[in-house]
Amino acid sequence: MDALIEPLQYGFMQRSLIIAILVGLICAIVGSYLIVQRLALLGDAISHSVLPGLAIAFLFGFNIFVGAFIAGVLSTVIIAWIRARSPIKEDAAMGIVFSAFFALGITLITVIQKDNKIDLNHFLFGNILGVTVSDVRDTAIIATVILAIVFLFYKELLFYTFDSLGAQAAGLPTNLLNLGLMVLIALTIVASMKAVGVILVLSLLITPGATAYLLVKRLHHVMILGAAIGILSSISGMYLSYFYNLPSGAAIVMVASGLFFLAFLLSPRHGILTQPRSRTVPSFPLLREIRDLMPKNRQKG
């Protein structure tokens, strides 16, 4: 018990744990929509696309969170524009846009650091131990806005996520819902920059929800269990970081990844070790195909 209480004596750990809990909560809830829609790459694209926005905002003295949010939304608009006005598929458009924005962000940060002697690299890898009271306040406001939007439009987003064509036929504003979902993702990434950085934020967006997806069926159950897993990962990662002097963002991601592989092995419905397997036919598809290519089995076929 003393080991659990000891870190809480320090103000920086109290602030860090509050942000970690908020980030674990909103990442899992918003990430559940990405998992159901199989759009994990979109989260990666937006997370990398916020870099030039925060660099430009810093250069002109604006709020960097606002700059990052605008850049994130702008990248999704460009992705949708490329997809609508060309034969290029969505995944290719995402790759083009996020790599271009990320390269621009790295270039701007490098130029700014030469003139201002300020380290902006912590936005890449996170600096949760250095958060201030104003950072906690901003993250709490963003988290409240995200949770309110999800609560108010849960049914519409649920319908659109599982059946976009059906939602359009039913008269729902699917383009507006799609834009709203992109805004939620951008807001979540902006709120998570201090905790794990733009490079590792995808893990918190995807891994807790994917872990829950292996254990429960319904979307609201995935959100609730994913949020619990995200919060548990964040708190456990912070304690591991404190006691073993590990990078905080990386420790949080490692705990989340460890929980995912436990579910992958032991899930009652999808677990590798809990599902009945045939004694004669290998369950791994690649091994089964190699086995079928063997001369003895080809003759049988």
Account of the 3D structure:
- This protein has helices at 2-5, 11-37, 40-49, 51-60, 64-85, 90-116, 122-125, 133-152, 154-162, 164-169, 174-213, 219-244, 248-266, 285-293, 295-300.
- The N and C termini lie far apart (64 Å).
- The protein is globular, with a radius of gyration of 22 Å.
- Helix 8 packs across helix 11 (174-213) and helix 11 (174-213) packs across helix 13 (248-266).
- The mean pLDDT is 82.
- With 301 residues, the chain is mainly α.
Walk me through the topology:
Elements: H1 2-5, H2 11-37, H3 40-49, H4 51-60, H5 64-85, H6 90-116, H7 122-125, H8 133-152, H9 154-162, H10 164-169, H11 174-213, H12 219-244, H13 248-266, H14 285-293, H15 295-300
- Tell me the major beta sheet: none
Rounded radius of gyration (Å) = 22 Å
Q: What general form does the structure show?
A: globular
Average pLDDT level: 82
Helix content: over 70%
Strand content: under 5%
- Structure annotation, total helices: 15
Low-pLDDT runs of 5+ residues are none
Structural class by SSE content: mainly alpha
Number of strands: 0
Distance between the termini: 64 Å
Order of helices and strands: HHHHHHHHHHHHHHH
What labels describe this entry?
mainly alpha; 0% strand; single chain; 301 residues; 79% helix
Q: Gist?
A:
The chain is built from 15 helices and no strands.
